[in-house]
Design brief:
alpha/beta, Rossmann fold, 6-stranded mixed sheet, 4-stranded antiparallel sheet
Length: 242
């Protein structure tokens, strides 16, 4: 079953074409990596799917429903959750309260607290649930972003550079978490510059370049595509081994 359909999406900002005629499908149960140089349009695409901005042209369909231009809260209720490259916790609230902001949308306070605690344990933050979010390390804040998204019980999870700024050991832990999340039946679209993670997690890779879809296919085939090498990976393959 096709879960997400992006049809001919275009978006410009003050004359700068951020996305141009981008189309792809994501099957339910899929894990799709989205890569490309900085400024390629990856975050803009995420923002359009999640409802933060409206496209100039094209449509986004989720589970057969046209969600183009819906507000973010309505899209979240439909079953799409996301993390942010720039982490945005409520710094003065505890980790538990940060996650409860999401769980309260679906239940009363007692149920929301129990649901939030379960998600916090799922991402390994139970020791810090009563600590203020501002006191967390980068790795802790990344996990909190993931917890807040999971608390919405999504069918599709949009991960925006969830590994950025982590050590190799921390990366390995989060990669295992993402695998577990996928095994539980959640579909994933992830933006990431750590190509070793993209290769390990993705069933398919999309490549954006100058706002256009440059390549779409299995990971090994995409990383051997000369156009992708020229535009992003480089002949030495440094990104692939990062």
């Amino acid at each position: 079953m096709i879960l997400l359909t992006v049809q001919h999406i275009s978006k410009a900002f003050a004359g700068l074409q951020a996305l141009e005629d981008v189309s792809f499908d994501l099957e339910e149960g899929g894990v799709v990596g989205l890569i490309g140089p900085n400024g390629a349009g990856k975050t803009t695409l995420f923002n359009i799917i999640a409802g933060t901005i409206r496209p100039d042209k094209g449509r986004v369909l989720f589970a057969g429903t046209d969600i183009t231009g819906w507000p973010p809260h309505r899209i979240a209720h439909q079953g799409i959750a996301r993390t942010f490259q720039l982490m945005r916790p409520f710094p003065g609230l505890t980790v538990l309260d940060n996650v409860m902001v999401a769980t309260l949308q679906r239940s009363n306070v007692r149920e929301a607290r129990a649901a939030a605690q379960a998600v916090i344990e799922r991402v390994g933050l139970e020791r810090w649930q009563n600590s203020r979010a501002a006191t967390l390390s980068t790795a802790g804040r990344k996990r909190l972003e993931l917890a807040r998204a999971l608390a919405l019980k999504p069918r599709l999870l949009l991960l925006d550079e969830v590994l950025a700024g982590l050590t190799p050991t921390e990366r390995a832990t989060v990669i295992d978490m993402v695998r577990t999340i996928h095994d539980e039946g959640i579909s994933i679209l992830l933006v990431e510059h750590v190509m070793s993670a993209i290769m390990a997690l993705s069933q398919r890779i999309l490549v954006l370049h100058h706002g256009k879809l440059l390549a779409d296919g299995p990971p090994r085939a995409v990383t051997q595509d000369q156009r992708v090498i020229d535009a992003y990976l480089g002949e030495d393959g440094l990104h692939v081994d990062a």
